[in-house]
Each structure stands twice: as structure tokens, then as C-alpha cells.
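As the next step, I wrote out a protein sequence along with its fold in C-alpha cell form, included below for the reader:
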Amino acid sequence: MRLDVAEALAHPGQEYRFHDLQAIADQEIYGDTVRIDPCSVEGTFMADDDGNISVRGSLETTAHAPCANCLEDAEAKVVNDFDETFIRNGDPEDDEIFAYEGHIVDTEKLIMSYAVMALPIRFLCREDCPGLEYHDPGDMHVTDPNVQYPFAALRQLLKDNEEV
């Protein structure tokens, strides 16, 4: 989302309201892809006498990722408040600040940062998810052809070695 702050720069101290949807690219977090729906963002912005822009508001969205217990699809509501200052003519490569030039403030980095900070540590498909069913790897009587056992070939090699 891009905010045109020209009027705010002409009237420092005057608040201006905004509301929009902000798309966020999929995020790779600890090896899992987290898909975040477009964020509903609303708030206010105002300029100070130095041309810095204070942006405050809130975001709300839904994030989707695999369940930490069973790997089924899971989703979590994401809500977060923000209050940041965009520095006029600041270094856009500095990850410690939000910067802008001209009269357009791009809030994409701000919204993405605050959405990711509000993600749950673990996604669960439901609160009481039991996780994957436990199968005893020593149980050679399990013959379900739909279940894949990644170390079955190694188990067979070990069994063949023991017979020699």
C-alpha cells in the first residue's frame, strides 16, 4: 500500500486516515511456507516539522501453514497494531528504520513485518490435534500399501545382513 503524504507534509500535525488491503508474499519460516491472505489495514498518518511521517494503525488477516502436529492445512487469525515513523530521505537499505523519499510512503515492508511478527509459533489444525499416528517401526506385520515407511529398505538390508 502506498500513502500519498503530500497534504500531510503541507500541514504538519494534521492526522489523515487510511484503509486498504495489502498483499503479502508467501513467507518461508523454519522450512514451512506460510501463505498470508491480503491484510486489511487501517490507521492514521501525520507529518512532523522535519517531514518524517508517523504511521499508526492495525492489521488483520489469516495465515495458512501446515499443522505442526499432523501436517494438515491449518490457519490462524493474525491481528497486530503498529506505530512507526518513516524517516524522510533515510537509507532505504537500512533494515532498522522505515524510510521514504518524495511524497509517497510505501507501507509494504511495515505491513509484512508486523504480520510476520504476529504469526503463531506453531500452527495447529485444531487445538486438540493428536498428530501423526504412531507406528512401531519394528512391527513387520503392518501391511497397509498406502503407508510409506522411509526406512523400510534399510530395515530389509539389515535383516538380509543378519541372515548371512
